[in-house]
Amino acid sequence: MNIKILTPEYVVFEGEVESVLLPGKNGEFHIMKNHAGIVSSLIGGKVKLFTNSVEEAYAKNLTKENEKDSVFSYPIKSGVVEFNHNKGIILCE
């Protein structure tokens, strides 16, 4: 599935991921391939991307959670996510 993370200043990440873990108002929630369409607000926390690789252009924006797993994170203050047809966009600050 394709995920794009945008801030008002730049594109944080764009690429294929296995899944994404997001900080929602009622707790974290996981979006995986073929997830039903969703629009949700996000609170402060970490957006976690589960992916095997990150393009070099985006790697500087993300933190690798640990050496063993392919989990990359990006801290946000707030935002919104829209996901439909295996494409998601996360607008955040």
Write the layout of secondary structure elements.
Layout: E1 2-6, E2 11-16, E3 19-24, E4 27-32, E5 38-42, E6 45-50, H1 56-59, E7 63-64, E8 71-76, E9 79-84, E10 87-92
Parallel strand pairs: 1-10
Antiparallel strand pairs: 1-2, 3-4, 3-6, 5-9, 6-8, 7-8, 9-10
Structure description:
Belongs to the ATPase epsilon chain family. The structure is a single chain. The protein is built from one helix and ten strands; from the N terminus they run E-E-E-E-E-E-H-E-E-E-E. The chain is mainly β and 93 residues long. It has one domain: Sandwich (ATP Synthase, domain 1). A hairpin with a 2-residue loop joins strand 9 (79-84) and strand 10. The longest helix has 4 residues, at 56-59.
Backbone shape: globular
The major sheet is characterized as: 5 strands, mixed
Low-confidence stretches: none
Amino-to-carboxy terminus distance: 23 Å
Tally the structural domains: 1
Number of DSSP-assigned strands: 10
Kindly report the spatial arrangement of strands forming the biggest sheet: 2-1-10-9-5
Based on the coordinates given, report the CATH architecture. Sandwich
CATH topology: ATP Synthase, domain 1
What structural class do helix, strand and pairing data support?
A: mainly beta
The percent range for strand residues is over 45%
Q: Give the proportion of residues in helices.
A: under 10%
- What is the rounded Rg? 12 Å
**Could you name the CATH homologous superfamily?**
F0F1 ATP synthase delta/epsilon subunit, N-terminal
Order of helices and strands: EEEEEEHEEEE
In round numbers, the mean pLDDT is 96
Number of helices: 1
